[in-house]
Amino acid sequence: MTFPVLTAAEAAALIDNGSSVGFSGFTPAGAAKAIPRAIADRARAEHEAGRPYAIGVLTGASTGPSLDGALAEADAVLFRTPYQSNPKLRAAINSGKVPFFDMHLSALPMLTRQGFLGPIHWAVVEAAAVEDDGSILLTTSVGASPTFLSQASHVLVEL
């Protein structure tokens, strides 16, 4: 089986304003890095054109500057859960600009599967490989990735 190969910008162009995105990662380890930055670039371009653009962000834990930081700087976070530790995103949350709901990390997969967090439109995961049968070999973090992959309408794999 062959899968399309996209640039990070092409992948970001697929994600609509208002989408909920489940990102891999547990701290920066295993978190997608290029696609979130491309989403941030897209958000800035949309905002400059006078159009809204922000996504719901779900992860297995905190991520780092390439995901939470880049999206917060670009004003591209519609909501964030379950945990974060990025200073830029924290400032947006504390100012009331970004809705945030904290929960124990272990509750996220169950609540996602049961639909309490709404639909997951996209899973964006970092992987070392994608096998011919579609199996994904995740990198240094698994966390909530299997839940996002099974629940998302669409999947983007960052190799």
Which characteristics define this entry?
alpha/beta, 159 residues, 6-stranded mixed beta sheet
Number of helices in the DSSP assignment: 6
Low-confidence stretches: none
> What is the distance, rounded to the nearest whole angstrom, between the alpha carbons of the first and last residues?
17 Å
Helix content: 25-40%
Oligomer state equals single chain
Radius of gyration: 14 Å
Number of strands: 6
Mean pLDDT comes to: 95
Strand content: 15-25%
- Structural class of the helices, strands and pairings? alpha/beta
Largest sheet: 6 strands, mixed
Note the overall shape: globular
Secondary-structure element series: HEHEHEHHEEHE
Description:
With 159 residues, the chain is an alpha/beta fold. The chain has six helices and six strands, in the order H-E-H-E-H-E-H-H-E-E-H-E. Strands 1, 2, 3, 4, 5 and 6 form a six-stranded mixed β-sheet that branches. Strand 2 (55-59), helix 3 and strand 3 form a beta-alpha-beta unit. The two termini are 17 Å apart.
What is the topology?
Blueprint: H1 8-13, E1 20-23, H2 34-48, E2 55-59, H3 65-73, E3 77-81, H4 87-94, H5 107-113, E4 122-130, E5 136-138, H6 145-151, E6 154-158
Parallel strand pairs: 1-2, 1-4, 2-3, 4-6
Antiparallel strand pairs: 4-5
Helix pairs in contact: 2-3, 3-4
Short description:
The chain has helices at 8-13, 34-48, 65-73, 87-94, 107-113, 145-151; strands at residues 20-23, 55-59, 77-81, 122-130, 136-138, 154-158. With 159 residues, it is of the alpha/beta class.
